[in-house]
């Protein structure tokens, strides 16, 4: 031990500068790490939804008030993960925190002041034009930042330049549907609300108010009026009280329009691995390899890639089980997904007769844009021939109310195609391409 200390002293005498630099570097690293671990955000919106995941498609788990501060635990896409006071962890939209330019005139009516103003998909002059607004037309201004206004026009959300709008003192009658966007609904049109999860009917519009009764998920209540972020409702048994607006969905003669995602991280995607269980699908030339195996393997990789991009993913099956065609489309309709992708592998009447992949759509109005975006991305990534976009009269597309496509990602009874189909590399290439296609589609 004495010899060890003697060597240390000799080292310090010979290399004092090296020791000092090393010590400073270690301290600096520790200080930087400490700062990185304690980044704070301040809520600027008057009320901010905290969601279960990093995207608008995830359920609201709580709300926080303006001015509150939270530590950032993680960041994904445009979302921050925070810890609430009760130790629950959730996600908040980055564009609604630490933004001093957010207008306090949220939900005020604006008048278009130019002959014709473009409404764009995002706050950028290069963004896609969704439509136009004429001089004198009224729009609901949701919030303003960096010279742009997010507006609601004809139940669609878009962006307009501030210099094309003049704010009035009139406040729009709106109901909040998600972070930073609202769906404009006439209160006279609202008939019922339905709980999306277990909730409480409260005696006044506050989380602190006493509970009148507990409400199970999917309970339908008669709508009476709106008070702030709360609905005054009546149960079937006649009990009246308040339920939080973020815990229910609306039903009306003309229901609140679905908000169209402008980013993949805001979207809900349904993946449908074809066949399964007793339905093997097409069979490879070896007689022992089935389509159902590779559709599921590929779908799982697609799901992982999409979740990494912030999307919410629902799968029609996650194991080797049989799901009939009708229920697959029904799932998409019930969940109101933003895109439905059915994954298959083709088969020709004769072995090795056909090769390549095809993207099918049914309804050109709702499906074709999605089909083209995915076909282009797949064509740029896969080694097989892109046979393009084609009309397909498939039940899962025909009975689907949402944007839907069916992908035939190669011919399983073509030996060259099958070599790719069964490889993890090809499946991952397809997963990455589908993700890229959806990123482009939701821009």
From TrEMBL:
One of its GO terms (molecular function) is N-acetylmuramoyl-L-alanine amidase activity. Keywords: Cell wall biogenesis/degradation, Hydrolase. PROSITE patterns: SH3B (PS51781). SUPFAM superfamilies: Zn-dependent exopeptidases. One of its GO terms (cellular component) is outer membrane-bounded periplasmic space. Transmembrane segments: none annotated. This is SH3b domain-containing protein. Residues 38-100, 104-169, 188-251 form the SH3b domain. It comes from the Bacteria. Pfam families: Amidase_3, SH3_3. GO terms for biological process: cell wall organization; peptidoglycan catabolic process. Signal peptide: none annotated. It comes from Schleiferilactobacillus harbinensis DSM 16991.
């Amino acid at each position: 031990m004495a010899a060890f200390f003697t060597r240390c002293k000799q080292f310090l005498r010979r290399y004092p500068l090296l020791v000092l630099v090393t010590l400073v570097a270690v301290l600096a690293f520790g200080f930087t790490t400490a700062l990185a671990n304690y980044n704070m955000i301040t809520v600027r919106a008057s009320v901010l939804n905290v969601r279960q995941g990093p995207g608008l498609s995830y359920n609201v788990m709580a709300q926080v008030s303006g001015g509150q501060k939270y530590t950032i635990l993680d960041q994904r896409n445009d979302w921050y993960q925070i810890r609430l006071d009760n130790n629950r962890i959730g996600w908040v939209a980055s564009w609604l925190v630490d933004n001093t330019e957010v207008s306090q005139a949220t939900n005020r009516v604006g008048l278009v002041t130019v002959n014709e103003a473009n409404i764009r998909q995002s706050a950028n002059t290069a963004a896609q034009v969704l439509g136009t607004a004429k001089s004198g037309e009224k729009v609901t201004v949701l919030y303003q930042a960096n010279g742009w206004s997010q507006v609601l026009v004809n139940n669609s959300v878009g962006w307009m330049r501030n210099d094309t709008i003049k704010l009035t003192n009139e406040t729009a009658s709106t109901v909040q549907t998600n972070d930073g966007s609202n769906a404009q609904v006439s209160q006279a049109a609202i008939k019922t609300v339905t709980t999306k999860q277990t909730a409480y009917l409260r005696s006044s519009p506050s989380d602190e108010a006493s509970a009148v009764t507990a409400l199970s998920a999917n309970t339908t209540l008669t709508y009476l009026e709106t008070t702030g972020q709360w609905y005054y409702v009546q149960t079937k048994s006649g009990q009246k009280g308040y339920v939080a607006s973020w815990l229910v969905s609306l039903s009306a003669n003309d229901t609140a329009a679905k908000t169209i995602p402008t980013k993949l991280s805001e979207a809900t995607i349904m993946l449908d691995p074809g066949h399964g269980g007793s339905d093997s699908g097409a069979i490879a030339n070896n007689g022992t390899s089935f389509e159902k195996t590779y559709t599921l393997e590929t779908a799982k990789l697609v799901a992982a890639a999409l979740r990494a991009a912030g999307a919410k993913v629902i799968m029609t099956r996650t194991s080797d089980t049989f799901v009939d065609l009708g229920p697959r489309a029904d799932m998409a309709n019930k969940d109101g997904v933003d895109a439905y992708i059915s994954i298959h592998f083709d088969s020709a009447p004769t072995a090795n007769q056909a090769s390549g992949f095809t993207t099918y759509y049914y309804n050109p109005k709702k499906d074709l844009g999605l089909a083209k975006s995915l076909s282009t991305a797949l064509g740029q990534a896969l080694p097989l021939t892109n046979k393009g976009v084609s009309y397909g009269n498939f039940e899962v597309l025909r009975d689907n109310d949402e944007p839907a496509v069916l992908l035939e990602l190669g011919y399983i009874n073509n030996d060259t195609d099958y070599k790719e189909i069964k490889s993890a590399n090809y499946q991952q290439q397809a997963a990455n391409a589908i993700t890229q296609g959806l990123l482009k589609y939701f821009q």
